[in-house]
Amino acid sequence: MYIRINNRCMEDATKIFFSMELKDSCTWNSILAGYSQVGLSEDVLRLFVQMRFLVIQIDDYTFSAVIRSCSDLATLQLGQQVHVLAVKVGFDTNKYVASSLIFMYSKCGVIEDARKSFDATTKDNAIIWNSIIFGHAQHGQGNVALDLFYLMRERKVKPDHITFVAVLTACSHNALVEEGCSFIESMESDFGIPPRMEHYACAVDLYGRAGHLEKAKSLVESMPFEPDAMVLKTLLAACRICGDIELAAHVAKNLLELEPEDHCTYVLLSDMYGRLKMWDEKASVTRLMRERGVKKVPGWSWIEVKNKVHAFNAEDHSHPQCDEIYSLLYQLKEETKLFNDFDNQTVLEPCISSNHFP
To answer: What residue spans do the PPR repeats cover (predicted)?
Structure first.
């Protein structure tokens, strides 16, 4: 109950869990799923170690939560170890476990292993197909993702609303505008699945990435329900891509009323004002953030080396090998500059010698 209410009630759920003297696998799975849902991935892994130490029976729900946590942390080697354990106990082809494995390998950039996990399953349900379509979509392999969707139809596997989020994501990331529009139009008529908020968000993203801002705006205005924050954020991102500051300011105003504590809107709008050298407007956004106590949450990148995860954010100096890292980055920058200069020279020389310039 506490897990389902909202993220803030996770502490109450945890208190109840640790107050219990006897805990079966269902109890452990509930708390693992809760931690996973609120992003406490490291806690999921710690509890899983305890669960193994106490010889609690693990099942497909356990593996799904743990593998998803490996995905969130991008810990490929640990994910592979859990995969081996799943194979050992015979859960690797379970639809929930296989789906989590596909997601994990895709998130860690190993789409080949994601495909192997997909090929090892019976492929008789939408959950598995959705995961692999998402995987290829996120790796910029839109045509492969759509081929999988068509193969899914040939196999008589019924798509669900998540399938179309995956398909529309593939279209969006690969500028397949016509295909994406066709899917939106055919969802309800051909598959009996009315478009939901997330489908409209994908369609807005599709138009925005392709530079069709007016179509994105018209789609939001024609929706059968009021747009939520997700759709408005996607439209704001489209405004940023297309450089429409007037529409961006209007969308941002609505977003700030819906989610005044979310830093993303302030940051996007401030960035647009900065690009257009509208310094007074940029300063007003910064001032509003300060008045409301909103702080920008830094983005992080991470890499796993020898079973240890190294995390970084922009202009980070906290890593113990910081000096070596920046030194190497500087060398790479200089070599890239030299390579580009050399490449441009080799292109220009034949043009000049053959009088291609007026």
So the answer is: 24-58, 125-159
